Amino acid sequence: MRAGRTDEAGALAKRVRTAVTRQNSLLVRDCDIRKNTKQTWTKVRHILRGRDRDRDTDVVAITAVILNDHYAAISTDQSYAAPRAKLTATHDSSCILSEAAVFYNLDHLKPTATGLDGIPAWFLSVGAPAFAAPLATLLNQSMCTGVVPQQ
């Protein structure tokens, strides 16, 4: 899927589905639902539960776990190398935003509706003197490390 070959994977899944359907319909084709429902349901249970493990010891049972492990193994790139570090994040701890710049922007907010955080603009404008320093520190740390805090 990473290589953009979803059409090929879809075609393969369709072929597998067709083969499974064809095999299961071959097992049920001799059953007459009107005359012998017991035999029909016995064959349906046989299809759903699989073959008896005692009789078919040489047959390898393919389970979802085996298929998942197989596709995980073949879809993993063995020659994967981690990419180089990006140059967009600065490594020096110089001040990018000053406390005065943050204060100015908070103090000059336009009165609008509350955003996704639910904090009204008037509250940020009134609290600008108290919020400017910690917010400037948080923003500078976030920009220097290239990580956005979760809270």
Structure commentary:
The chain is mainly α. The chain folds into 2 domains: 6-75; 99-145. Helices cover 54% and strands 0% of the residues. It is built from 6 helices and no strands. It has helices at residues 6-28, 37-49, 64-75, 99-107, 121-126, 128-145. α4 crosses α6. The protein is elongated and about 85 Å long. The mean pLDDT is 78.
Mean pLDDT: 78
Q: SSE string, helix = H, strand = E?
A: HHHHHH
Roughly how much helix do the residues carry, as a percent range?
A: 40-55%
Structural category: mainly alpha
Which features would summarize this protein structure in a list?
54% helix, elongated, mainly alpha, 151 residues, single chain
Task: Give a summary of the structure in a few sentences.
Helices cover 54% and strands 0% of the residues. It has 151 residues and is mostly helical.
Helices and strands, with pairings:
Elements: H1 6-28, H2 37-49, H3 64-75, H4 99-107, H5 121-126, H6 128-145
Helix pairs in contact: 4-6
